[in-house]
Design goal:
Blueprint (H helix, E strand, L loop, with lengths): L1 H24 L40 E6 L5 H7 L1 H11 L2 E4 L5 H9 L5 E4 L3 H9 L1 E8 L6 E9 L15 E3 L5 H10 L13 E3 L3 H10 L4 E5 H9 L8 E11 L2 E5 L4 H13 L4 H6 L5 E4 L2 H4 L1 H10 L5 H21 L1
Parallel strand pairs: 1-2, 1-3, 6-7
Antiparallel strand pairs: 3-10, 4-10, 4-11, 5-8, 5-9
């Protein structure tokens, strides 16, 4: 019962903070901007690197006594708070700041937390990274990886092992779960890539949003869905943790590789703090438990949004997705509906 109330309260407070935060932040829109590109009016991109420039007024720099960190809610946020604890402990010592892990229940809540100044650095899912950049002033600087390359993942289409479905086109008229509107592998990439394979979402099947990758996977396992496009790394982690049996599923299609979740800082962090923090990330080496949790990745690998997210933006364009305020409003609505639906099942 308490869980039911907490989920409803989370949905309500998230929506309220989104509305209030956007209204307050709009007062700070930069009007003396020579180039903004796809960024919201709050931000400027005069060097045309596709991300927000630091504030022109040094008085707007933030140097908080406590750094707030989070990780994308692709699965249970509590799981990742424990996984990242060795790193957040290290980050506190490295920066000389208190570091807290802020659990978020949705991508919209995470994006709004950075936009409103409540989140200073965090990991954003591949697709929502675009929203974080355009609407929250996020500056992606790293992904999980190894010594020579970043870590990526594939979009995979999963079905139950004993199902009759052998190829994408076999799913016409079936129950197929997408994750949520902003998800790259869980929605945008399927919309861009599946039509060429003989299956058009919302035409050949009604899209059913599950809310999270793990919900899609378990839903296929229980028979709630016939199939689901999900991120291969999430699927693999669930199998490694014993949440699912990999042999209960069959992968009928696999995409090219996409970059995994980005780590991004708020554009208005005080430059010295920002540079120190970024160096702390790059210097850190994952302990054994983090390497196991993240498929062997052992460090934060340097990236730029302009170069390394080009394939993600291309997929978004192919699916017709825009990363602006109107699209974000739709994302908030869908995520609120997913939270409400989850509460009703409790």
């Amino acid at each position: 019962m308490n869980t039911h109330k907490n989920i409803w309260w989370s949905a309500l407070t998230t929506l309220c903070s989104l509305v209030l935060g956007f209204a307050v932040q709009s007062a700070y829109a930069q009007t003396d901007c020579k180039n903004r590109g796809e960024l919201d009016a709050l931000y400027c991109d005069e060097n045309k690197d596709l991300v927000a420039d630091p504030p022109k007024d040094a008085k707007r720099y933030k140097n908080p006594s406590t750094l707030v960190f989070t990780y994308t809610p692709v699965e249970d946020p509590a799981v990742y708070e424990n996984i990242f604890k060795p790193f957040t402990d290290y980050l506190g010592k490295c920066t000389g700041k208190r570091v807290v892990f802020y659990q978020v229940q949705s991508n919209a809540a995470e994006i709004e937390a950075m936009r409103s100044g409540r989140l200073h650095v965090g990991g954003f899912s591949t697709g929502p990274t675009n929203y974080a950049v355009n609407l929250a002033g996020a500056i992606p600087f790293a992904v999980k990886g190894g010594e020579k390359e970043l870590q990526g993942y594939n979009l995979i289409m999963i079905v139950k092992k004993d199902s009759p479905y052998q190829k994408i086109a076999d799913l016409k008229g079936k129950k197929v779960a997408h994750v949520q509107p902003s998800s790259n592998s869980g929605n945008l990439a399927p919309r861009a890539l599946f039509p060429a394979l003989g299956l058009t979402p919302d035409q050949d099947y009604k899209v059913l949003y599950s809310g999270k990758h793990d919900n899609s996977v378990t839903g296929v396992g229980t028979g709630d869905y016939d199939a689901a496009p999900v991120a291969s790394d999430v699927f693999k982690r669930m199998a490694t943790r014993g949440q699912i049996k990999e042999d209960d599923f069959r992968i009928i299609w696999r995409s090219e590789m996409f970059p995994t979740s980005s780590f991004a800082y708020a554009h208005d962090l005080e430059p010295k703090l920002r540079d120190t923090m970024v160096k702390c990330f790059y210097d850190y080496r994952f302990p054994a438990e983090m390497r196991k949790a993240f498929d062997g990745a052992d460090r934060f690998f340097p990236i730029t949004y302009q170069k390394d997210w080009a394939i993600v933006r291309k997929v978004a364009e192919g699916s017709g997705e825009k990363f602006n305020s109107a699209a974000f409003d739709n994302l908030k609505k869908k995520e609120a509906e997913a939270l409400a639906a989850k509460a009703q099942k409790k």
